[in-house]
Amino acid sequence: MPDFFTLYLVVLLLGLSHAVLWAAIVYRYPDLGGARFWLCGAIVPIFGGAILATQGNDGLLVQTVLGNAFTIAGFYLCLMGVRRFHGDPTRWRSCSALLALSVVAMAATFRTWYGFNPLYTLLQALPLLLTAGYLLNHRHRDLGAIIAAIGLLLAALAHLTVAGLFTARLAGSEIEIPVARLAAADLLVLMFSATLWNFGFIVLSVDRLRSELARLAAEDDLTGLPNRRSFLTGLEAALADGGAPVSLLLFDLDRFKAINDSYGHAAGDAALSHVARTFEGCAAFGRRTTFARLGGDEFVILLPGATADEAIRTAERIGALLRARPLTWQGDALPLTLSIGIACKAQSHALEASGLIELADKALYHSKRKGKDTYTVLHALPSREPPPRGELDAAMRLPGLGEIRPRGA
């Protein structure tokens, strides 16, 4: 079994490797929650290992208490990092109070239980158990959290085993305890466990970054709504069920350019966000509904399983809802209205996504050409391609192809 100077030196080098790793992550991803705490949680025990290494194999009060205090502080920093990572308060005050009590307890019992002091390992096990418990009970528990919790529990179990044996010795048991070997084994388990829980934290971070990239790829930056990519995925899935009707509402804001020109682009952005907030989660939408922003002031509502009558009722509801909630901008109430194009695919009609979008676009074009605050309905017919824009007026007169309804009709 290596001597304690060698073991503490290994702890120092291992801590340095973890610190370099977390420093690189913090440098590359400065906004990653918890990473700075985990960096500090790797650095602080380095000082503890360096201090403990200076005492050699003979315990010295100041070095022993201070070295263990740095180690315990590093464990509490890991706990605070996990809480910050999941968006919870770090609880600086409670962690600092527990650390201060640990220092006092270690100093007060150093001479009394010298050589068999169970408090040192118990006080180190406490933050490890708190962190593992938080990870295993958290609503976002995943693979990284489980890996980290296993490492934390292994270290805590080794500490508790040592503390239990020391407590039995202090209680008068005649069990022979090879203190040096036991402490060295405990330290080796701690080094392995520290690598394991840091690996778990890295897995957590990678999963978070991947989720963020996936969210950015599927979400509109301004409104937080699904973007064109997400909408197309939902539309293709809805159309894959050829036996069900599908309706599509394509709409944009009337006089949106005038808002930008008169009040500035910040007002235009506020108008788009206002539309998103007004309609997101609207009771008029079903659970399978997709409400997305395609770009500019163009939005879309996908209604899988909805008939033309249901799509029309939805259009009337959102039009009335937006008229009832004007945008307030710098003290002015800006009324907002919509031009809506409705495309409907009847049951059992085969149609590609591009065809339904083109049909909705033609309906929207007609609504804007005929007037504002209006919706137009076009039905996809299996025996006929959607008419070109130049023939739209004539096509609208074909029975069953479409209808135009201005507000109030």
From TrEMBL:
Transmembrane segments annotated in the record for this chain: 6-25, 37-54, 60-82, 94-113, 119-136, 143-167, 187-206
EC numbers, comma separated: 2.7.7.65
Record-linked InterPro entries: Diguanylate_Cyclase (IPR050469), GGDEF_dom (IPR000160), Nucleotide_cyclase (IPR029787), Rev_trsase/Diguanyl_cyclase (IPR043128)
Residue span, GGDEF domain: 244-380
Keywords in alphabetical order: Membrane, Transmembrane, Transmembrane helix
PROSITE patterns (alphabetical): GGDEF
Catalytic activity: 2 GTP = 3',3'-c-di-GMP + 2 diphosphate
NCBIfam families membership: GGDEF
Protein name according to UniProt: diguanylate cyclase
Species of the source: Bosea minatitlanensis
Lineage: Bacteria, Pseudomonadati, Pseudomonadota, Alphaproteobacteria, Hyphomicrobiales
